[in-house]
Amino acid sequence: MNNQQVECGCDEIPQSLLSTDEALDILLDSVKVTSKTSYLELDDALNGILAIDLCSSINVPDFDNSAMDGYAINLETDKVNIPGGLTFDITDRIAAGSIGNNLSPGCAARIFTGAPIPKGANTVIMQEECSLTDNDSKIEIYRPISLKENIRPKGNDIEIGDLILRSGIKLMPQDIALAASVGINKLEVRGRLKVGVFFTGDELVDPGIEVKPGQIYNSNRYALVALLNNLGCEIINLGNIEDSLDSTCKALETLMHKCDIIMTTGGVSVGEEDHVKPAVELLGELSLWRIKMKPGKPLAFGKVGNAAFIGLPGNPVSAIVTFLLFARPFIKKMQGYSDILNNTIKVESNFDWNISKSRREFIRVRIDNSTIPPKVEKYPKQGSDVLSSIVWADGLAEIPERSTFSSGEILDFYPFIEMTS
Fold this sequence. Notes:
- With 421 residues, the chain is of the alpha/beta class.
- It has helices spanning 20-29, 173-181, 219-230, 245-255, 276-283, 316-335, 388-392, 416-419, and strands at residues 37-41, 54-55, 65-66, 70-73, 81-82, 86-94, 107-111, 123-126, 131-133, 138-141, 145-146, 151-152, 163-165, 186-190, 194-200, 204-205, 216-217, 234-241, 261-265, 284-290, 293-294, 298-304, 307-312, 345-349, 360-368, 375-378, 395-399, 410-415.
- It folds into 4 domains: 20-36 and 191-335, Molybdenum Cofactor Biosythetic Enzyme, Chain A (3-Layer(aba) Sandwich); 41-60 and 159-190, Molybdopterin biosynthesis moea protein, domain 2; 65-152, Molybdopterin biosynthesis moea protein, domain 3 (Molybdopterin biosynthesis moeA protein, domain 3); 345-419, Beta-clip, CATH 2.40.340.10.
- The protein has a 6-stranded mixed β-sheet, with no helix packed on it. Strands 18-15-19-23-22-20 form a 6-stranded mixed β-sheet, with helices on both faces.
């Protein structure tokens, strides 16, 4: 990994551009996994991040049991396969939750799914394959019989000491069910990260308010909050603040000792009205990176008080893309996830790429899964201001630096359905 450090003031002092891989490595190397944990009842543990490995203290099942409703029988033989045409006396009835009596040779016990196999029984025959005779006191079985049919052995699912759940997983319903199956009633999970957000820019207006000439609706606020909610973060949202250095410093001071992360969009350039950069530098430290990618060239990273600081670009598409590619893995690692990187699949382009570009591009595409490999088409407008392209698209196709190709090129595809849920 390249631990390259980039000095602040990148627009004032020329600097080389970081590759996307270098920028992500630097971010992830700086992460300290949260040490906060809590114990949650199983009903409250869904989507929590498991803090420790879980091993079973019991066998599941803890006894041999029937896989079917039917009859447990005692075959007086050591043969594996026995011809049919046998009759057995019914001497017992065993429901789930009860324990039957010893079963003598030549006898059968009516048994139900999940009930313990009685001593002496060595196979279970489905009720549909048995005929009742002599006023339902006997059964006749005409097909050949095998030993140990329809018997679930002790420890068939889980044995004592088995690792059942690994730390770092996001708890799904099936994980919670598995924990319950071994008698665990509480799970230790990582504490929720507190993320503080605020937004600067006198041109920004919240939806529901009439915009005046020169003003725009603040879509970044709602995108960022939604993306953080999807990651299970606790959000402290200061909303839009006055576009001044003093107000920006006060917002940072409000959040810096309460939050694990502070995030903003825009305002980290060197213009006279860009106050986030000098405010962060006054109260903490900041690296402002230029990344060899499109959209989303500028990305700010630093620290203010106890909180990490991530400044995303101001254009709406750039803000979302850089969040997904950089902030999301950063947050997941801090949360204690074991699997933090975005997954890709291979797709085939149905478009040409005729101009070699120096930056890696992440273009908005729609996928056609009816072919193998799937094919993708690109949105005709790829500007970083075209927010509608994110809604139209199914994900991002990665175009390597200095590439040209014709339709049919194999590309890496980042599905939105995975990165935004």
